[in-house]
Amino acid sequence: MTVVKTLGQFIIEKQADFPYAKGELSRLLRDIGIAAKIVNREINKAGLVDILGEAGTVNVQGESQKKLDIYANEQFISALESGGECCLVASEENEEVVLLNSKFSKNGKYIVAIDPLDGSSNIEVNVAVGTTFSIYRRKTDVSEEPNESDVLQKGTEQVAAGYIVYGSSTMLVYTTGKGVNGFTLDPSIGEFCLSHPNMRIPEDGTIYSINEGYYTHFPEGVKKYIKYCQVHDKETNRPYTSRYIGSMVADLHRNLIRGGIFIYPTTAANPQGKLRLVYECNPLAFIIEQAGGLATNGVKRILDIEVNKVHQRSCIFIGSKNMVLKAEEMMREYS
Ligand code: AHM
Ligand code: MG
What we know:
This protein is 30% helix and 21% strand. It contains eight helices and 13 strands. The protein has helices at 7-14, 24-44, 46-49, 68-83, 220-230, 248-258, 277-290, 321-334; strands spanning 86-91, 98-99, 110-118, 129-137, 160-166, 170-175, 180-186, 191-196, 207-209, 241-242, 260-264, 294-296, 316-319. The protein has an eight-stranded mixed beta sheet with strand order 2-1-3-4-5-6-7-8, sandwiched between helices. A five-stranded mixed beta sheet has the order 10-9-11-13-12, with helices on both faces. A hairpin with a 4-residue loop joins strand 6 and strand 7 (180-186). Helix 1 (7-14) runs antiparallel to helix 2 (24-44).
């Protein structure tokens, strides 16, 4: 008989890794898992119930429509607020940080940074999307009101991080700094079940993921690396395969399992890079490092970058160790 281990069971079991833990982080992770299931349900029926319209417009039933990214934002925030362990949320959907004021959450010890629905433009065409999240300890004292300064912590300060990929099946992958584990949602029992224990990213991969449409504006080092990926060389399995979904979580999830590199460099439209450091790059960098890979901005480790703004952007080179090292080498040499 195959024994199924649910996310809830796994989290409780892992609490033993933290002897002084009171279960607060475990409850917080559980709350995120609950919101993920609700968001997943909505994504699955998106094509059926006509909620794909622009925010603020009215659907045929006369109800006001919400885009799924706004819906997802509300679901995660409300799950965190009722869960009571998180006092403040920084979200891609909110310009300002959101204070959670319920009786329990205002004393919560944690803060969460989240992109509730990354790659949301892909929903209309039935392509995978994702959620990324980071959990930090609150820095302000409980006697004060938590504020933006609580979010301005380096990636190395993350207590836990993860992503959810809503794909051909829905998966939640997370780390608390002791390896990476992946759970697949079994819709028949409504639970995330451990399906990918102790995930490791291959040190060498054969996939490179980058939007080559912006090629002419890439830094010289990136152009050289792309050319390197395309050159024929039997020994290193080149040319590599190019795969780009346009949902960072989905691209990264595939590369984590198969081995590969994802790059979003500086471009003309995004001279600092497009992706957001706090809730997109840092959680994924934590996961990938914990799985044995690397994440840099071309010269510096992502997790060591100073955070000055909640919505700060960064360029990113992330994935299999030897591929990221090679790309970095080219950035040093040519950019
Ligand atoms: P979003 O947060 O507005 O959805 O943008 C983030 C997404 C990533 O998932 C993806 O890798 C990237 O934007 C794609 O951007 P581009 O179309 O410029 O390649
Ligand atoms: Mg995003």
